[in-house]
TrEMBL record:
It is found in: Cytoplasm. The keyword Cytoplasm applies. The keyword NAD does not apply. Pathway: Cofactor biosynthesis; ubiquinone biosynthesis. NCBIfam families: UbiqAccUbiK (NF047835). Required for efficient ubiquinone (coenzyme Q) biosynthesis. UbiK is probably an accessory factor of Ubi enzymes and facilitates ubiquinone biosynthesis by acting as an assembly factor, a targeting factor, or both. Belongs to the UbiK family. It comes from the Bacteria. Keywords: Coiled coil, Cytoplasm, Ubiquinone biosynthesis. Its main location: cytoplasm. Residues 53-84 form a coiled coil. This is Ubiquinone biosynthesis accessory factor UbiK.
Amino acid sequence: MAFDPRKLDEIARQLAESLPEGLRHLKSDAEKNFREVLQATLARLDLVTREEFDAQSEVLARARAQLESLSERLERLEQELKSQG
C-alpha cells in the first residue's frame, strides 16, 4: 500500500518542529530521519486501502445475509421434518 508522501512530509515536519529549542539546529536532519523511520515503519505494517476494506466489508455483509437466510431455511425444514415424523 502506498502512502501519500505529502502526509508523511507533514508528519515528519511536525515532529521536527516539536523538538526542544536546543535541538532546532538539527531540524532538517531530524525531519529527514523522521520521514525515513515513518516510511519504513508503515511499509512493514499489513495495511489495506480503504477501497479494499470497503469491498471486503460488502462481501462479508452479503455472506452474513446468506448465512442467516440459510439458517432460517434449515430451521423451517427441520420443523417440517419434526411435524411429519
